[in-house]
Amino acid sequence: MLAALISDLTSIFNSASTLFTVDIYGRFRKGAKESELMLVGRLFVIFLVAVSIGWIPVVQGLQGSQLYLYIQSVAACLAPPIAAVYLVAILWWRANERGTFYSLVYGLLIGLIRLVLAIVYSEPVCGELDSRPWLVSKFHYMYFAVFSFASTTLVMVVVSLLSEPPVQSCLQRLTYFTAWNPQVLPEEALKVQSVGMQITVTDALRASSGPTKDPLSLTQKCAVSHADSTGGVVLSDSAVDTKC
């Protein structure tokens, strides 16, 4: 039992320190050396251990030393939004990035509010008057998990419908209904897009009656030409102007 506990803790601490060092600290210290990153990771592990030890009284006060109930209450506040986002994204092709972001923000916000209220207002002992807020005293955490899941799903659907749909070529083999579609390589998709751009530009040039009515600038023509010659890779304006 002790060995299993140590194994789980080391995995969690190692993953958390890696995320902090690479995703957070690395953004502010882009030229940091390996030795510096290793030192920061070790210091962050020490910080996590201190936070874990300091969190023990909160666990004892929240559910009366019943660790299982504490884990379930915390999971009911934070896990349903993540589950809703994954489920909707897999089963519905119309879900997009904007809907995912705002639904996660909403779900985690209400979950944190419920969790903070449960920590601040502890459960009274038997025989005492329960003066806690309604969200904590009358709304069980399992019912709150159902509400959080349903409301997060609704927010994701509404925001996704009010914003632009995702590109269909980006959904290949990522959703349930496109999991068995034939795989399209990125190079082939770019070539098809380049050919479509070339046809559109050709039609526009034929429709113009003279140089003064040419709807395309020199930079745009060169961009299409280079996009076709490079296999569909659209170059930046600076690179196009240099090559033209």
Automatic annotation (TrEMBL):
Membrane topology: Multi-pass membrane protein
UniProt GO cellular component terms: plasma membrane
Keywords: Membrane, Transmembrane, Transmembrane helix
Keyword rRNA-binding: no
Metal-binding as UniProt keyword: no
Pfam families assigned to the protein according to its UniProt record, in alphabetical order: SSF
Main location per the UniProt record: membrane
Compartments in which it is found: Membrane
Gene3D superfamilies listed in its UniProt record: Sodium/glucose cotransporter
Transmembrane residue ranges: 37-56, 68-93, 100-121, 141-163
Record-level Gene Ontology MF annotations: D-glucose:sodium symporter activity
InterPro entries: Na/Glc_symporter_sf, Na/solute_symporter
Family named by the database record: Belongs to the sodium:solute symporter (SSF) (TC 2.A.21) family.
Protein name: Uncharacterized protein
Organism: Paragonimus westermani
